Amino acid sequence: MQKMNFERSDFLPTTRKEMQLRGWEQADVILFSADAYVDHPSFGAAVIGRLLEAEGLRVAIVPQPDWHGDLRDFRRLGRPRLWFGVSPGAMDSMVNKYTAARRLRSEDAYSPDGRHDLRPEYPTIVYTHILKQLYPDTPVVLGGIEASMRRLAHYDYWQERLRPSILVDSRADAIIYGMGELPVVEMSQRLTDAIESGHPDLAYDPETGEAMMTSACFRDIICGRHPLPQTVTLHSSEDDIPLGIRPTDIRLHSFEQCLSEPRLHAENFHQIELQSNSWSAQRLVQQTGNFWVVVNPPYPPMTTEQLDHAFDLPYTRLPHPKYNGKRIPAYEMIRFSVNLHRGCFGGCAFCTISAHQGKFIVSRSKESILREVQAITQMPDFRGNLSDLGGPSANMYAMHGRNIRACQKCTRPSCIHPTICPNLNGDHRPLLDIYRSVDALPGIRKSFIGSGVRYDLLLHDWKDEALNTAARDYARELILRHVSGRLKVAPEHTSEHVLQLMRKPSFRLFHAFKRLFDQVNAEAHLHQQLIPYFISSHPGCRTEDMAELAIQTRLMDFHLEQVQDFTPTPMTTATTMYATGYDPDTMQPVFVARAPHEKQAQRMFFFWYKPEERRHIERELHAIRRQDLLLQLFSGTQPNTPRNTVNKFNNHNKNFKHK
Question: Is residue 564 included in any domain, yes or no?
Answer without folding.
Answer: yes
